[in-house]
Amino acid sequence: MEDSAHRHCIAGIARRGLKFLAGEIMLWRWLCVVVALLHLSVGSAQSANLSGDPLLQRRITVWLKMEPLREALQQVGRKTGISLRCQDAIAGEKVAIFVEDRPAHEILIQLAKLFRYEWRKHEDGGYILYIPDETRLQEEKLANAAREVRHRALRELVRAAREIRQLSLEQRGKEWNALWEKRDSLTPEQETRLSVLYGMTPTRPMRRTPEDEWVETDELFFSDQYTLYHCLASLPDRAVDALINGHTIGLSTKPVPGVFALGRDALLPNWMRDRKWFEKETASEESSDRFTEQTAPYNPEFAGVWLRVGSRLNMIEYQLVSLSASEFTYDGQSNTSRSLTRHEYALAFNVVPYLSDQPLWRFWTAWAMSEEQLLEAFPERVPPRNDRPAPRSPEYVSSDAVRSPQVTTVDVLEQIAWVTRRPVISDAFRFRRLYGESAYQTAPRPALARLTRFCWLRVDESGYLLVRHQHYWALRKYELSEALLRPLEQKYEQQGWLTLDDYVALAGKLTEAQVEFLIQGRHFFMHPLTRFEFEPLIACLPALRFLASLNAAQRQQLASGQWLLRRRLNPTQQRRFNEALGDQFPPAQQLFSEPLPEDTLDATEELLNLYYTQWGYEYFGVSEDSDSQFANMPQEPAVRLFIVPEERRPFIQTAHGYISSSFHGEIDKDLYEIIQNVLQREPGSRLMAARLRRVQIEFTTERGEWKKYNFVLWRSEPYVLPEPKPEKGEAERSKP
Description:
- By secondary structure, this protein is α+β, with helices and mostly antiparallel strands.
- Helix content is 39%, strand content 22%.
- It has four domains: 50-131, Phage tail protein beta-alpha-beta fold; 137-282 and 290-352, no CATH class; 368-476, no CATH class; 480-581 and 613-718, no CATH class.
- A hairpin with a 5-residue loop joins strand 18 and strand 19 (465-469).
- Mean pLDDT is 83; it is low at 1-11, 13-46 and 601-621.
């Protein structure tokens, strides 16, 4: 009985063991099938035969510029009748495809080759473009290495500045000349040294003699770069480390603890030092050069510098602070005034020499043709085409001109593709710009030579011109979506204006990385070229992002001119409020161990940084409306909108589209003659008027301080100069 039970037990165990073994075998078989399928999937992805697909044999023309990859593939798909798609991760990347009458499979293969992507068969019978792991990892590695490369370049810059600081001005000039002579074969360290030598060597301004000749003056001119490099050279290693790690560093003539001493050789620019003006003894009343200027050879008593390294761009942002005195002597009488000046800008430094040893950078450098090889692949001149009209470059709108002559790199590539009939494929960015010239339509070589400064270019065996932008892995993080920009461009073209609400909506849709990039790049016009004014967005970006966080009721309250109190905002809105009220650098007083003289302080300049559209002040005399500033201002942090009545200001537009002069106020006889003289001196110029629409976004603090963003939009229109109003005496004499 026990033996039978024992055998039964053993049999049961055996059966369970066999079942388990069978299950393991089945699982193993399924794993083998899955692995095989994955292998086949990967294999098909690597070797999807687009050239063997009958639908892709069709010859098509694709002419797309600044098109997101998803939409570009959809358009090609509609022309061929086959489904084409891409991974979501790369769907928004912009491409330029200028190809006439070529097989569809050829275009798609070239596109994938340029981007280092691959095609695989999709289950619906079409194809999907995807980024292979190898490509993704290489680009991530280079993007991560860029941070360390930036630090290396910055340390080398400081080292060069320390060494050059010990040289005399004569020695600096000689070394700069020697390096410049062999500038095409410099090491990365020598390239850095060349740029530092240029900044640390003052220049002598030119003046015109009575014989109409230009000669050097005796006075030395000191630039911002001179000040910055000498400041960096004087910092100890711990301060340089702090600067690299994102801290703001200060230097001052009267330093407080934590602020470093501003050396005597770190001279501020001439215009930020004490100056005197004397009337020349031989000058006549009609002379435009009646006074001579003398600049102090030392810094003012109160002088300081704030420094920090930009988190997104290869630059050192800085603010120069100066309390300088100006003495003006006229008819033996002297008048002296003191003013506090703060000047912000940025010093860019080159990291490309230090990127050159990175594997992916080396790949693209080897892939690209040399400039000489590239130009040889194109004729020096080509006959104009008559089969269809030449493509028109978009009329980008810029606040530094009526119509900007700048174009994107792909605008130029479009012209090259059209005139040479050569197929062109490129990645595309609105951030990459250069000046367009009509000569490019018949002489492509100058344009190609300029493109080599920004791009890697190659003509492959099929005749395609393939173009990849340098730093594309970084640029695509900051590039703005066409879905955001195109509706605004269409509205601007239809109506001629955008509104504050349009800019608020755009600001609210930007990523944090895009916001940082735009603010840090504002000094170098690092913003996309658009067919509407983009500068007002950058000038008022913190305020616009705050407005974007408000709900409809809060916006309506502001639109009515009422104050909106900060304590009535939610936590997110309060954070945006504080960001808008904040400053790029600490207050100037924090640089100095002694109080700044009260008679020179201006709350607008000293306590809070005033954001504004620079061209609005410079060209059209747009000023603050201080009479309305403090009307019913609450005694706690708040914000309001003040809508300024529309204005019309005449200005002179040059033949090249720039603004040379602007005028405001009543046009009397003297102003009438001035305008006529300017028009005569500048051939091809014409008189225009700017219609200005302004909204002031005003913030206050609990201490009674305030900050104002001057949001300005404008459009130009022809202007007829009215006859000057007669003076009072002339009016009386003209009566019958």
